[in-house]
């Protein structure tokens, strides 16, 4: 049921109940049938129409401009207004023998008390609707901001990755031109895949692994026997969707700051497994991890990755790097 239908249904229901309750404080049996009908119709339609006019007036106020005091005063003003209308109807149709101010005040308070709960409900429902709409707008704006930030961060990845790959080919051209030509073909495939992944919000694990294999094969041409690597992937998880360009960032860091800093090179092991709704990616490489200052270009890739994980998953994901016995373990845990 949409908001408009819900509003009119509640209007009819509430003012019907209020109309029936109104006969309790007067001697309704003394009325003629025509007077009873007029009384009930006047009570119902005066409340129904007055409340709708009240709603139109209230709607002219911008929710963002209404103070807490105004929120508290609105239902009081509404209750006093319709309570006054009901009191006038009572005095016009039923000739009270006691016309004292005390009797008038008593009837007025009874009429206000009858309609006040409706106005409290009306404003509570309106406040919750406004709050929900505001939260949805804020969530939408926050989501757009996150998407914008993610796109900006992903655009930083390709130049960083391209720079490393071109360095590999540059070194290779001095050694073997044929292999350099093959490497250029590999790089072309590699860039096509990385660019496609960079445009996506999610990528399959198999796509990420294919990119990783291409990248390591290209780096293998540069490092030769100094670089050895191995993939240990859990079966049947290739279709899991993850944040794109995650694994490759870890590999770039492992090659550049791990293997590349060792005279005799080292070993890289890539593992992927699932655990209770999370996928865990780990890149293990020979070497020692030394955190770089924030103004050092060596830390851009990892800081970028941390920001992307935070934007995409919040506290549900993390990047952790540990040093253990001459090896570096870079681990990503994120939901899927």
UniProtKB/TrEMBL annotation:
Residues 149-227 form the Signal transduction histidine kinase internal region domain. One of its GO terms (molecular function) is kinase activity. The chain crosses the membrane at residues 7-26, 38-57, 69-89, 101-124. InterPro entries: Bact_2-comp_sensor_kinase, HATPase_C_sf, Sig_transdc_His_kin_internal. It holds the Pfam family His_kinase. Keywords: Kinase, Membrane, Transferase, Transmembrane, Transmembrane helix. The keyword Membrane applies. Signal peptide: none annotated. Gene3D superfamilies: Histidine kinase-like ATPase, C-terminal domain. This is Histidine kinase.
């Amino acid at each position: 049921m949409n908001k408009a239908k819900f509003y009119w249904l509640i209007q009819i229901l509430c003012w019907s109940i209020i109309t029936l309750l109104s006969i309790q404080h007067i001697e309704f049996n003394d009325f003629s049938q025509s007077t009873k009908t007029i009384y009930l119709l006047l009570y119902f339609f005066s409340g129904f129409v007055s409340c709708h006019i009240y709603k139109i007036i209230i709607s002219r106020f911008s929710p963002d401009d209404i103070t807490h005091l105004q929120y508290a005063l609105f239902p009081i003003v509404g209750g006093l207004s319709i309570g006054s209308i009901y009191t006038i109807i009572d005095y016009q149709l039923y000739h009270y023998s006691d016309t004292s101010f005390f009797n008038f005040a008593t009837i007025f308070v009874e009429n206000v008390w009858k309609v006040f709960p409706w106005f409290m409900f009306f404003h509570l429902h309106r406040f919750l609707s406004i709050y929900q709409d505001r939260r949805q707008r804020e969530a939408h704006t926050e989501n757009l901001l996150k998407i914008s930030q993610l796109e900006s961060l992903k655009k930083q990845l390709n130049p960083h990755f391209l720079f490393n790959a071109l360095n590999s080919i540059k070194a290779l051209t001095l050694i073997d031109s044929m292999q350099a030509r093959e490497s250029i073909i590999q790089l072309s495939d590699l860039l096509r895949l990385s660019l496609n992944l960079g445009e996506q919000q999610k990528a399959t694990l198999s796509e990420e692994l294919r990119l990783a294999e291409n990248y390591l094969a290209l780096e293998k041409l540069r490092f030769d026997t100094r670089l050895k690597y191995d993939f240990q992937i859990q079966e049947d998880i290739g279709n899991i969707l993850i944040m794109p360009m995650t694994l490759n960032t870890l590999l770039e860091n492992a090659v550049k700051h791990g293997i590349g800093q060792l005279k005799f090179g080292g070993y890289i092991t890539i593992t992927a497994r699932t655990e209770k709704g999370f996928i865990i990616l780990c890149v293990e490489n020979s070497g020692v991890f030394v955190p770089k200052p924030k103004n050092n270009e060596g830390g851009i890739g990892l800081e970028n990755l941390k920001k992307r994980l935070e934007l995409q998953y919040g506290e549900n994901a993390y990047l952790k790097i540990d040093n253990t016995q001459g090896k570096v373990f870079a681990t990503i845990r994120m939901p899927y």
